[in-house]
Design a protein that fits this description.
Blueprint (H helix, E strand, L loop, with lengths): L1 H15 L3 H13 L1 H21 L4 H37 L5
Length: 100
């Protein structure tokens, strides 16, 4: 009875763990691809946070998760600045009178 319970708990833990290189790749994609970057950045942060909590791997693997999370945060800030810039630019274009 006890071994089955432990085995089920180990399966649940393994399901929640994501690939460290995948998390890093999503973080890097966030920095360079404008529209898809917002979605991949959010996913990278979620995957990294969940994986860091459940993983008992070496420090190198945890460093990959952290690097993916940092890249995602930097990329999301960059995407936000680009979005604010385009909104500002669009507002300026609409506010200027048309001179034909």
């Amino acid at each position: 009875m006890g071994k089955r319970k432990i085995r089920k708990e180990m399966e649940i833990i393994e399901e929640k763990r994501f690939s460290p290189s995948g998390t890093l790749a999503l973080g890097i994609v966030t920095m360079f691809i404008p529209v898809i970057g917002i979605i991949s950045g959010i996913l990278a942060i979620i995957y990294a946070n969940r994986s860091i909590k459940v993983t008992e791997d070496t420090e190198a693997v945890k460093a990959l998760y952290l690097a993916g999370r940092v890249c995602a945060i930097i990329g999301l800030c960059y995407q936000g600045l680009i979005l604010v810039y385009f909104i500002f630019l669009f507002t300026i274009i609409l506010a200027t009178p048309m001179m034909y």
